[in-house]
Amino acid sequence: MLQAHFFALLLAAVAPAVLADGPPESMGEKFSGLNVLDANGGLQSLTPAPYTISQWPWGTVPKLCYDTSVNNKYCNPYDLEVYDVRYSDCPIPTTVCRCKNSPMAIDTIAQRVGQLPVKARQYNGYVSSFAGDMCSAYSDSFNNYFFGDCGNSESVFFHELSHNLDRHVAGASINDWYSLSQDWKDTVAKDTCVADHYSKASWLEAYAQVGVMAGYDATVQSIYTQNVGCMINQVKKVVGQLNSVWRKQPGQMCDRYWIKDTTVCMGPDAEASGHCQASHAAVAAESGGVNPVLPDGQQKKHDALVKELQRHAEVAAGISPGKPAADRKTKGSKKGTKFRV
After folding, report:
1. What does the mean pLDDT of the chain come to?
2. Is the C-alpha dihedral spanning 339, 5, 306, 123 positive or negative?
3. Which helix (H) or strand (E) holds 62?
4. How many whole angstroms from its chain centre is CA 153?
5. Closest by CA position to 104, among listed 81, 71, 73
6. Is 66 helix (H, G, I), strand (E, B) or coil?
7. Which SS3 state, helix, strand or coil, does residue 22 take?
8. What is the pLDDT of residue 322?
9. How far apart, in whole angstroms, are the C-alpha atoms of residue 132 and residue 136?
């Protein structure tokens, strides 16, 4: 609990009004952390979809990965490794951008992502992995970004994907995060507890934590065996919204995906050595392709909120302008409380 309260104080120090607003501190807490749903045959033990991994030739990277790495000093662009992970349940590969000093091996990332049910997984675009002192992550509602070693915490992968589902499945009718709606706030207010202390960080985090519980309900066993009566309204709401994408069915295949980004050269050294010939524009949409853009009226609000989520993840991972992830020399990762945004 001491660590949980530390991160609550951290949030209070850096969160803007939109994120500082969340469930009241007076509410009870069902769990001390959702890592309890990983253990004892839980989320961590789910069988991943079979997959193959192919690494891109050195020299070109997706523009999103390049911009994220360079603009935030997460990774020297020449140190980026790009992989296409092809799962047996989806012909469109999941593209992973991994900095070579990330403590998570590509096979670990592929397994953790492959444990996510395909109907939910198809709402994630790129997966990025960077160095960090502790497991920390954030979502921009299209793509998921991880710092440190999250390899032993499948619940973190479910949590980040829940942010994507919050916007594009639960919130599809209002074209915004459902968790920012009055309906979600009213639903939480009907209960006497939230999932854990971290759920009080913001309405988005409260939703994503219940999203993990809904994923557990659909893939492991009924979440109602965990005596969730104190938050029954939240559980029923999110299970009702996400059960169709979390629940695995025989023969399921992906039926939509985010259109891939433009490919760019790593830099002048790669270009000079003739390794940038494969640079190309964004891949045209095939059947099921969806452009990962928002209406003009939504984009500015979305970007500002994601920037704050990103900064929280950096602080939790021990990353700062003076200690950028790109400068980490070792692949080790300190153990500590996991912080996901």
Report:
1. 88
2. positive
3. strand 60-62
4. 12
5. 81
6. helix
7. coil
8. 82
9. 8
